[in-house]
Amino acid sequence: MPIKVPDSLPARATLEGENIFVMTEYRAMHQDMRPLNLLILNLMPTKIVTETQLLRKLSNSPLQVQVELLHTSSHLSQNTDADHLSSFYTTFDQIKDRKYDGMIITGAPVENLDFTDVDYWDELCQIMEWTRTHVHSTLHICWGAQAGLYYHYNIPKYSLPSKLFGVFPHTLIRKQSPLFRGFDDVFYVPHSRYTTNHLEDILAQPELELLAVSEEAGVFAVKSEDNRRFFITGHPEYDPDTLANEYFRDLNKGQAQNLPAHYFPNDDPTQTPVVRWRSAAQLFYTNWLNYYVYQTTPYDITKI
């Protein structure tokens, strides 16, 4: 998928170095088609890393996608340069009167806090309410999924006895779902979280459909019956070394940390992790964009 991004966005050089098609603004303006307008609310502290991971997965179809980056104004990011935010990000007040074909709400390392104790919770609730009328399809990731399930359907999250950390096998509940078209019977997804959603809470909500689960990681993929909201509890967009970096970061801080499961060969952290989730991750994001954004969004974006 040609991704249209600002010429100087750091992710552009990284993706072009990986032979991923990143479209210049000039070329995008001269194509006779309406691009999909996609908004990414990036709640992660390492914003440049997350931008690059997501843009990489949104880059493999002939569709043109115009991506905008959004950050919360009620939280001051301490891990991203202020110049980067001012150059490439917008705030909700600046875009609240616009409409979007698709939106991604990322995870955030705040799952041990009650939702209402997160300093940008009120702003996030305002944004999630706004998506009902201004976004055709919204994808919530990890803590963003837990926040969305709680806000839209009053489904709580629960603390786990220990951190769920590793790359876990998953199976499909709805094998005919277009979201998982082309998937193997068993597919792998990275997880890194301290909380979870209970299966029975999802099944008790008639407006939700359970799509995929893991025996070890629990609920993975859920969607609303009207296909407007999607919730995934893992991180298919993670890079090969993301879990390793997290593991060694915590060790260097003196924090007790289990090895990420099913990740290092022979559970030996000196060995290079084996990637088993890349193809499923690419399919997942491509399917969401194709079947639940491009195929169903109105050509006149004002009619969303």
TrEMBL record:
Q: In which compartments does the protein localize?
A: Cytoplasm
Q: Which EC numbers does the record give?
A: 2.3.1.31
Gene Ontology process terms (BP)? L-methionine biosynthetic process from homoserine via O-succinyl-L-homoserine and cystathionine
Q: Per the record, where is site Important for acyl-CoA specificity?
A: E111
Coiled coil: which residue ranges? none
Q: Where is this site: Important for substrate specificity?
A: S192
Q: Which reaction does it catalyse?
A: L-homoserine + acetyl-CoA = O-acetyl-L-homoserine + CoA
User: Which residues are responsible for catalysis?
Assistant: C142 (acyl-thioester intermediate), H235 (proton acceptor), E237
Pfam families in alphabetical order: HTS
Kindly state one GO CC term assigned in the UniProt record: cytoplasm
Main localisation: cytoplasm
Keyword Amino-acid biosynthesis found: yes
Positions contributing to substrate binding: K163, S192, R249
Give a GO molecular function annotation for the protein.
homoserine O-acetyltransferase activity
State which pathway it belongs to. Amino-acid biosynthesis; L-methionine biosynthesis via de novo pathway; O-acetyl-L-homoserine from L-homoserine: step 1/1
Keywords, ordered alphabetically = Acyltransferase, Amino-acid biosynthesis, Cytoplasm, Methionine biosynthesis, Transferase
HAMAP family noted in UniProt = MetA_acyltransf
Function, please?
A: Transfers an acetyl group from acetyl-CoA to L-homoserine, forming acetyl-L-homoserine.
Q: Which family does the similarity line name?
A: Belongs to the MetA family.
Protein name in UniProt? Homoserine O-acetyltransferase
Q: Which organism is this protein's natural source?
A: Flintibacter faecis
